[in-house]
Amino acid sequence: MPFVIVVRFLPSGRIAGALASGVLRYPLRKYALGAGIAEATWATYSVGLGYLGSAVADNRLHAAALGLGVSCAVAAVGTAIQWVARRRAPRQRPEGGGERDGEGRDDRTSSTAAV
After folding, report:
1. Whole-angstrom Cα distance, residue 27 to residue 21?
2. Is 4 exposed, middle or buried (0-12, 13-18, 19+ CB in 10 A)?
């Protein structure tokens, strides 16, 4: 679902995200929920940033700098959330080949080497 939400903020991301979700047969309910969250976030962010920029800054350059700063802050928060979510996700060990024991040896060869 994070892909569905984030791709909406990229140029032409709505089309690419919808096509990718369809090709990958992403569940419609999850896609609709992600798209709804993304649209509500985008609308709130855009309107709030416009209102804040016009209310705070009389100078257009200051308003543009404020908008750019808030956009960077929002992007940083989104990146941090994704980073934390990935760190907390359980890691799955690959099945079969390439597993190693605690000393860096291949499990398959260490059991046969002792025989």
Report:
1. 8
2. buried
pLDDT in tens, 33-59: 888 888 898 888 788 877 777 777 777
Structure tokens at 97: 């080949």
Are 8 and 35 in contact by the 8 Å Cβ rule? The answer is: yes
Q: Which residue in this structure is represented by tokens 């990718």?
A: 20
Global pTM reads 0.48
86: its two tokens: 């990935």
Q: Are 79 and 2 in contact (CB under 8 A)?
A: no
Q: How far apart are CA 50 and CA 64, in angstroms?
A: 10
Token pair 């079969």 in the structure block, residue? 96
* Token output for 29: 């309910």
